[in-house]
Design goal:
With 327 residues, the chain is an alpha/beta fold. It is built from 12 helices and 10 strands. It has 2 domains: 206 residues, Spore Coat Polysaccharide Biosynthesis Protein SpsA, Chain A, CATH 3.90.550.10; 107 residues, no CATH class. The two termini are 35 Å apart. It holds the Pfam family Glycos_transf_2.
Length: 327
């Protein structure tokens, strides 16, 4: 039986960590420890961790702010497990998560793994719509852990596991923000380790609760993709350019209103068809008309914000081609 170390970086989100810790008390598999790393928060969660210390094998550390990547490294250095698992603080873990991981690793040895994310029935409709937009094949190409993907699977830090050997060889995250989890996954792969998706090791990811927060997050994700390009020139694929094409295509379509009304009408029909497909797909997956309607909004934000962030950081790249966020 393997021993797992769960590393959770947190910054000013005590309410989130309480829900996460509560879900970890419900696990059917208990051979794990929890390391909470408070990354210089002004609103601490130490009292919440103290309340759960009698229910869980839990360690709490407070450190100066350095960003989530380096905070995870801090936790890895304290960890005693055979595998280190990273969760975002806004995740809720199904009670069979570790059981699913253990069962899969018994059948197939993986050095690093990840799983998909999903939405709970208790989530707000906006959270469910955001969850759809971040996992839909129509908006992300399924690159965040879905079974249908336009590129090879690489784990993301909201739900990611690595062996102790991986950390010892790679020394963890090289950058702390701006695509740190993607860079880490690529480096794990390049070091010759075996990476895989564990489809049943899902987490419930609450994500953002307001559309404005979601916009800012996706804008930052778009910038992060260009930062990855600074490290790995061959890692910019067609699927990553889709939000850029969306923004440029939208700008071109709007411009046709002033010089070619026929072309404008054709563009409107194409956009309408695309969003009809999203609405139908969202309704099939959520069985909720309001969520599927909101998914049209969140899908637009997902593509538009990511594309704008991509463009913004591309101009920054011209001035500063070297990687940012290094140790």
């Amino acid at each position: 039986m393997r021993f797992y170390s769960v590393v959770i970086p947190i910054y000013n989100r005590p309410d989130e960590i309480e829900e996460l810790l509560e879900s970890l008390t419900q696990q059917t598999f208990s051979n794990f420890e929890i390391i909470v790393v408070e990354d210089g928060s002004t609103i601490k969660c130490d009292h919440i961790c103290e309340a759960y210390s009698s229910k869980l094998n839990l360690q709490y550390y407070f450190k100066e702010n350095s960003g989530q990547g380096f905070s995870r490294n801090f936790g890895f250095e304290k960890a005693k497990g055979d595998y280190f698992i990273v969760f975002d603080s806004d995740c809720i873990i199904p009670n069979d998560y570790f059981e699913q991981v253990e069962e899969h690793l018994n059948k197939e040895k993986l050095d690093a793994f990840g799983g998909p994310d999903a939405a709970l029935d208790s989530f707000t409709r906006i959270q469910k719509a955001i969850s759809y937009s971040m996992t839909s094949f129509f908006t992300t190409g399924g690159i965040r852990g879905g079974n249908k993907q336009l590129e090879k699977f690489r784990p993301r830090s909201f739900n990611m596991g690595i062996s102790k050997e991986v950390f010892e060889k790679t020394q963890g995250y090289l950058i702390t923000r701006m695509g740190e989890d993607i860079e880490f996954s690529i480096r794990i792969e390049n070091a010759g380790f075996k990476i895989g998706l564990i489809p049943n090791a899902k987490v419930y990811h609450k994500r953002r609760t307001k559309l404005g927060q979601f916009y800012k997050q996706l804008f930052f994700f778009g910038r992060g993709r260009i930062n990855i390009f600074r490290f790995y020139k061959n890692e910019l694929k067609l699927v990553h350019l889709l939000p850029l094409f969306f923004v440029l295509g939208l700008a071109f379509w709007i411009s046709t209103l002033f010089w070619n009304i026929n072309l404008f009408e054709i563009g409107a029909a194409i956009i309408a068809l695309y969003y009809i497909m999203i609405g139908i797909d969202a309704f099939i997956k959520t069985n909720d008309f309001l969520v599927s309607s909101l998914s049209l909004v969140t899908s637009f934000i997902q593509l538009f914000a990511y594309g704008l962030g991509f463009i913004k950081e591309s101009f920054t790249y011209i001035k500063q081609p070297k990687p940012t966020g290094l140790r």
